[in-house]
Amino acid sequence: MNWISNYVRPRINSIFSRREVPENLWSKCTECGTMLFHRELAENLNVCTSCGHHMGITPRDRFLALFDGGVFVEVDVPAPTADPLNFRDQKKYPDRMKAALRNTGEKEAMLVVEGEIGRTPIVAAAQDFSFMGGSMGMYVGNAIIAAATRAVELGRPLVLFSAAGGARMQEGILSLMQMPRTTVAVEMLKEAGLPYIVVLTHPTTGGVTASYAMLGDVHIAEPNALICFAGPRVIEQTIREKLPEGFQRAEYLLDHGMLDRVTPRGKMREELITITRMLMDLPPAIAGDLPAPDHEAEDTPDEVAPAEDAKE
Predict the structure, then answer these.
(1) d(C-alpha 137, C-alpha 31), whole Å
(2) Taking the model in full, what pTM does it have?
(3) Taking Cα atoms as reference points, which of 156, 159, 138, 157 lies closest to residue 77?
(4) Could you tell me the residue range of the domain that residue 255 belongs to?
(5) Residue 131: which CATH number?
(6) What does DSSP say about strands 120-127 and 110-117: parallel, antiparallel, or unpaired?
(7) Which of 121, 218, 108, 203 is nearest to 160 (CA)?
(8) Closest to 147 in 3D by CA, of 126, 133, 130
(9) For 31-86, what is each residue's pLDDT tens digit?
C-alpha cells in the first residue's frame, strides 16, 4: 500500500460521493414518530399531518397565520432591570439570556402586537416556550401590562396565547410579583368592558396558570395541551395515587368545566374571529374578506322610481 492508495483515492471518492443534505429538511413527530417534511409541517402550522399532534410554534409564526395578510405591528414593551439579583447557578443569568436570544432571535419570552383578524382590530400577546421555557419574569409582566394598556387605549379586545413552565427562578420574588401585576392589568380590561380571551397552549403551568392564564372571559385550549399548576408527577408523588387517564390535559379540563373550547390550531383563527366579533357586538365576518355591507343604507329615489313608473 502506498500514499496514493491510502490517502488520495479515498479522498477523491469522499468528495465525489458527498451529498449536501440540509439538517433541517425533516422533522420527527414527538408523538407518533413520523418523519415530516419541514415545508409541509410549516404549512400545517407545526401540526403533525399523520396524528394531529400539536408541536411548538413561535409567536411570530403564529401571528403570521393569525392576522389578515400576516400583517401586524409590534407594541413596545418597557425593558426591566437586567439580572436584578445577580443570580448564578450553573451559568450566569445574563449568559442564559444571551443563549436564549441567540437560539430564538427574540429578546424575551413574550411578543405583543396589534393588527386585524377578519377585519376585526385586536391586540395580541404570545409566549415563546423556546425562550427559557416561556418563563414569567419582569419582562413578561411588563408585556402583559403594555398589551392591556394598548387594548384599552384603542378599545380593542386582548387575545393572549400562553405557554410557560411557570415563574422565572433567576428573578426570584420579583417574578412571583408579576402574578398580582398581571391580575391588575386584566382588571383594567374588565373595567373598560373589553374582552380578554386566553388560548392555552402546551404547556401552561405554574404561576402563569395561577394568574393571567385563567382569568379570561373565554378560555380556549389547543388539543392535548398540559394545563396545570403542579404537574401530574408531583401530584402522584404527593397523594400516592394513580391519576386518571389524560389528567390535566385540555380535553380532561374541558369535560370538568375549566375550559370553554378545545380548538385545533388550524381552526383557531376562525374561532377567534367569531368570538371577538360576538363579544364586541359586531356583525359576523364576511366570507372571502369582502367589505362589510352598509346596513344603514336605505333605498334611494332612483331605486324606487321604476316601481312608481310601473304603477302609472
Answers:
(1) 30
(2) 0.84
(3) 138
(4) 56-283
(5) 3.90.226.10
(6) antiparallel
(7) 218
(8) 126
(9) 998 999 989 999 999 999 999 999 999 999 999 999 999 999 999 999 999 999 99
